[in-house]
Design brief:
Structural class: alpha+beta
Radius of gyration: 69 Å
Strand order of the largest sheet: 2-1-4-5-8-9
Shape: flat
Number of strands: 17
Helix content: 55-70%
Length: 994
């Protein structure tokens, strides 16, 4: 990874935008960040860290004062870091959260933090991410370093430089954990501890389960008296068991006693059940005899009642026989009655028919049948005339409607001809208008191009005015810068001349008695020159800086003026020499012409639609004219046909009317007379038939009466009964006979059983049955309780035995797991108290120490060497991450805290560089092309400082750029490439490059 550029504004001590070009120091390989204490040297590194990771390490855990206190409320705060990796070149722009004036309502409002990531491509910078979470994810993939790793391998920040060397094992472990991400090993330890706790809990729970089930079984044995005392089984000597196995053996013996008791209780239950069944059987026999006794007494009473009803049943049987004998005469008697009634009705109908016929003028005594036939034939010929008479109004209306339809069709054809004749002129006029509109609409693209050109000229004309004003202002600034440059050049020449003139005085001011003159070497100084007008090196440097700044400003303004003039020429060409007023007029005319063309294009659509409508109307009118002509011919033909039918109908109707007003009236009169004649004929015939039927019915009745047991018709009619009455008599007789036979059969069987005459008492048998059932119920309960106790006791013993068997396997597995968890956690047999994570970090620390010793050997002239120590810490503290210093002069090791300040710095530097190498290798072997060291070198003497400088010089190999923060003057003399952070008199700081 290589840093290229840093821009800082409104951040830390920097108010205005400061730019650091790290690529400018690539050739030197090492540069110094110098400045007075508190000027803001470390803030450069803070800005780099904030830009890449959004945080500053020295503000962790405290108030994050990232925004510059020198900023005005409206000033922005922003950090831009530009860097490259093997995957490409990137730029991060990040702003912290701060308060700014509210745009509405006054007061202050919070400006949210913002960040953006850009990538350089062939087309320039393109955005890659703009949300904090997205930028963080992209940077993790690009940098491949966490913030802790970045601070340890690239930014060796102040106050962190020597903490790794002097830290205790616990603090060193926390730092290494952040760098190498070994929290997963602590998670492994936690998982094994959790597994151990779970296994321990499971084993304890299983042991508790065994104990609980054994205790429950023992309580059951004690509660049910199965301990061997007070039972039918022989007693045993009871002793307190000393183990689970002994207690289980005792419970198994109690189980045997429980099984014996259950068998005894089951046998007693069977005996009680037999006795209860016998008592229930005796009770059932007594109850059956009681029911038979009651049935016998009831049958006796019922038979006596039936015998008393026998005379009444004999009377009913005689009545039923007479009714059945009279039933044979019922039809003949009824037939005679119906014949008399029908004859009377026929006589009345005959009289009524004669009266009606005479009222209509009929000759009722003549041959009515011949007259009826002749009248019927004649009325049939009038039926067609009647139908025509009824439909005559409709037919006349149809004739009138047909005549009106002919007139209407003729008028419609004439009107259509008038409309059709006017359409050709309208089509011709519309065609001319459409051609003119199309010509205007077809110019749309040309007019649009003309408008765009006019718009470009108008924009260019406005730009010409702006650039002319800017050119005048820039020319004025350029003339002022030129004059300033000339003044600063003259001032620098005067200072150099004054310094040259006063050089003798300056040399004389350094002369000391008994010291040789640096010019002539004499020890005597008889007449040293005076230094009346001193000019220092700083004065010359300040004048040169002013001269260079003025020169640079002049060059910048000249370049801007040249660029502005070229831009003005280009814009003037685009404006085509037009002023703003003329360009605005041209644009307005072009816009109006384009608007008219577009309106013509819209109108053309309407005209095309109107033309299509007119052509369609012509076609429609032609088609309608043909249809109307066909319809008119059909209407005229129909009108002639209807007039002919109407004349024929009126002729036929007049003939059929005769002397009546209508054909219907004549037919109605004739039909009434025909109906009256037929009624007379039918009445005469019906009366004759009824007389004959009456004679036949009376003959049949007399014959039937002679064959019956009755003397006359009155006796037969008196004996008649309806079907319902006969059925009721028959049912009554049958039920009496059936019921008497049934009761006799019941009484016969019961009398054979020789039942006692006195009522039977069930109380003794019921009491005996209840007592036997109560004994059986108690026996069932006792047997179920004994069987349940035996089964429950057996289940508890089996469950406890199974759990006890599994406990041994769980205990062996728990012992293995406990030993492994203790070893991983630094407990038990792990005498070094090293956890698994510490063991892994100790291996990393050995590599770090080895990498550090490769530089420390040269830096300490072979005297010092770091060693990893896994010695057991005092008072049982965790060990394994110790560092000691081996002193080759004494052959002994000593703690790092015993080193002097300079030795501590060199050792810390070697250890930090070794740590950077190992972390880099663990991060995928990324290349580190930029390195910063923020640590005071003031504790080093001259020789040690030379050693440190040689080490820093070695770091430049391979194209690496090393930045060192220090205010030591010796380093300023040895490192020519410098960044100077200078605090201005009003507070803010600026960054200057040399």
């Amino acid at each position: 990874m290589r840093l290229h550029r840093l821009e800082v504004e409104g951040f830390g001590p920097f108010r205005s935008r400061q730019i650091v070009d790290f690529d400018a120091f690539a050739d030197d390989g090492i540069f110094l960040i110098a400045g007075r204490t508190g000027a803001g040297k470390s803030s450069i590194l803070d800005a780099v860290c904030f830009g890449l990771y959004g945080g500053v390490p020295r503000y962790d855990g405290g108030e994050k004062r990232l925004r510059s206190d020198h900023c005005e409320p409206d000033d922005p705060s922003e950090v831009v870091v530009e860097f490259s990796t093997p995957t490409g070149r990137f730029r991060v722009t990040r702003s912290p959260e701060y308060l700014r004036p509210a745009k509405r309502g006054g007061g202050m409002t919070k400006q949210a933090s913002a960040v953006a990531l850009d990538e350089w491509t062939d087309v320039g910078w393109i955005g890659r991410a703009a949300r904090a979470v997205d930028v963080a994810g992209e940077l993790d993939e690009i940098l491949q370093l966490s913030r802790e790793q970045f601070l340890q391998v690239i930014l060796l920040a102040q106050n962190r430089f020597s903490e790794f060397l002097l830290a205790g094992s616990r603090d060193r472990q926390a730092l290494l954990r952040r760098l190498f991400g070994t929290q997963r090993f602590e998670d492994v330890q936690a998982r094994f501890d959790e597994r151990r706790r779970v296994a321990e809990h499971a084993l304890g729970a299983r042991l508790a389960t065994v104990e609980a089930r054994v205790e429950e079984a023992e309580r059951l044995v004690s509660a049910d008296g199965l301990s061997g005392e007070g039972d039918e089984t022989p007693p045993e000597t009871v002793r307190a068991p000393s183990s689970i196995e002994d207690r289980l053996d005792a419970l198994r013996r109690a189980k045997a006693r429980a099984d014996y008791r259950a068998e005894r209780r089951a046998s007693e239950q069977v005996d009680a059940e037999k006795r209860s069944a016998a008592a229930d059987e005796s009770l059932a026999v007594a109850r059956d005899e009681q029911r038979a006794q009651r049935e016998r007494d009831r049958a006796r009473s019922a038979l006596e009642r039936l015998e008393a009803e026998a005379p009444l049943i004999d009377d009913a049987r005689a009545e039923l026989a007479a009714a059945r004998a009279a039933e044979a005469l019922r039809s003949t008697i009824a037939a005679v009655a119906r014949a008399h009634s029908a004859l009377a009705v026929a006589s009345r109908d005959e009289q009524d028919a004669h009266a009606a016929g005479e009222a209509l003028g009929l000759d009722v005594d003549g041959d009515l049948e011949a007259w009826t036939a002749a009248a019927t034939r004649e009325s049939g010929a009038w039926q067609r005339a009647r139908e025509l008479e009824e439909s005559a109004p409709t037919l006349d209306a149809e004739v009138r409607a047909a005549e009106e339809a002919v007139v209407a069709a003729t008028a419609r054809i004439e009107a259509a001809n008038v409309r059709r004749a006017a359409l050709p002129d309208e089509i011709a006029a519309l065609h001319t208008l459409r051609d003119e509109t199309r010509r205007l609409a077809d110019r749309g693209e040309d007019l649009q191009a003309a408008q765009q050109a006019a718009e470009l000229r108008l924009t260019a004309a406005h730009e010409v005015e702006r650039l002319r004003i800017a050119e005048i202002s820039l020319e004025h600034e350029l003339s002022q810068a030129t004059a300033l440059h000339a003044d600063t050049q003259s001032a620098l020449a005067r200072l150099r001349q004054r310094r040259a003139d006063g050089m003798a005085g300056e040399l004389a001011s350094t002369l000391r008695d008994e010291h040789p003159c640096p010019v002539c070497g004499s020890l005597d100084h008889p007449a040293p020159a005076t230094h009346s007008d001193p000019v220092s090196h700083e004065d010359i440097a300040a004048a040169e800086g002013a001269r260079d700044a003025a020169s640079q400003k002049e060059r910048d303004l000249a370049s801007s003026s040249s660029t502005l003039r070229a831009e003005l020429a280009a814009v003037t060409a685009r404006a085509d020499g037009r002023e703003v007023e003329q360009a605005e007029s041209d644009y307005a005319e072009a816009a109006a012409a384009l608007s008219s063309s577009r309106a013509a294009a819209e109108a053309l659509k309407t005209l095309d639609g109107r033309m299509d409508e007119l052509v369609a109307r012509v076609e429609l009118l032609d088609a309608e004219r043909e249809d109307d002509a066909r319809a008119l011919a059909e209407l005229r033909e129909r009108h002639a046909l209807l007039r002919q039918r109407s004349a024929e109908a009126h002729e036929l109707i007049a003939e059929a009317r005769g002397g009546f007003d209508t054909v219907a009236a004549r037919m109605s009169d004739t039909e009434a007379k025909i109906a009256a004649a037929r009624a007379v004929i039918h009445a005469i015939s019906e009366r004759a038939r009824r007389v004959e039927a009456l004679a036949e019915a009376e003959a049949e009745r007399e014959a039937a009466l002679a064959d019956s047991v009755f003397d006359d018709v009155a006796a037969a009619e008196d004996a008649l009964r309806s079907a319902t009455e006969q059925e009721a008599l028959d049912t009554r007789i049958a039920q009496h006979a059936v019921q008497r036979e049934k009761e006799r059969a019941i009484l016969f069987d019961l009398e054979l059983r020789t039942l006692p005459e006195e009522p039977i008492d069930l109380a003794p048998a019921e009491q005996a049955s209840a007592d036997a059932r109560s004994v059986w119920t108690r026996a069932v309960d006792e047997a179920a309780r004994a069987a349940g106790t035996a089964e429950r006791l057996g289940g508890l013993i089996d469950s406890a035995s199974d759990e006890q068997a599994r406990t041994a396997d769980d205990a062996a597995e728990f012992e293995v797991l406990q030993n492994l968890a203790d070893t991983i956690a630094g407990r038990g047999a792990n005498t070094r108290k090293m956890t698994l994570e510490t063991f892994v970090l100790a291996a990393e620390l050995e590599e770090i120490v080895e990498a550090a010793n490769r530089r420390l050997h040269d830096m300490s002239a072979g005297r010092y060497q770091l060693q990893h120590s896994d010695a057991l810490a005092a008072r049982g503290a965790a060990s394994g991450l110790g560092i000691v210093v081996f002193d080759a002069f004494t052959g002994q090791t000593r703690p790092p805290q015993s080193l002097s300040g300079g030795e501590t710095f060199l050792t810390s530097l070697a250890l930090a560089l070794g740590l950077a190498e190992v972390v880099t290798a663990r991060a995928g072997g990324i290349r580190l092309d930029t390195l910063f060291i923020d640590e005071g070198f003031g504790s080093l003497d001259g020789d040690t400082l030379d050693v440190a400088m040689r080490t820093l010089d070695e770091l430049r190999q391979g194209g690496r750029t090393v930045g060192v923060i220090s205010h030591v003057e010796a380093m300023q003399e040895q490192i020519p490439a410098q960044l100077t952070v200078r605090a201005l008199p009003n507070g803010p700081s600026v960054i200057e490059a040399r």
